[in-house]
Specification:
Elements lengths: L1 E10 L6 E9 L1 E4 L9 E9 L6 E9 L2 E9 L7 E5 L4 E10 L3 E11 L6
Length: 121
Amino acid sequence: MTRKIEITVYNHTEHIMYVKKKGLTYGQWLVEPFSIGSGDSRQFSAEKEIGDRQGTEGFVLYECEKRSFAIMFEKPYGKGDSFIKVTDIEGLLIEVNEIIKYTEVTSGSVELVEVLQEQEA
């Protein structure tokens, strides 16, 4: 049995989303995150075998039009709450939805909806 995270990332903009950095504190990549073209989507996933006293935990840092955001995720050991959250999203319109928690799998989606225009001073 495993503790698995699956995240689908949608790019609804006309720009490419580049993976700048990725990492796992615990677990291993089943499908590694990749850059995402305009109007495309990609899924990444990671898991950790049950029996070890850690869950699956990690992050992916994306950049789009010189603005970045991080997707952080965790499916902990034991009865802790799983989560998928997005941080550092200034200048981007992002939606996190469809977080579904099963006994062994937590899945969800993150959508980059728009790159916001910079405000002139």
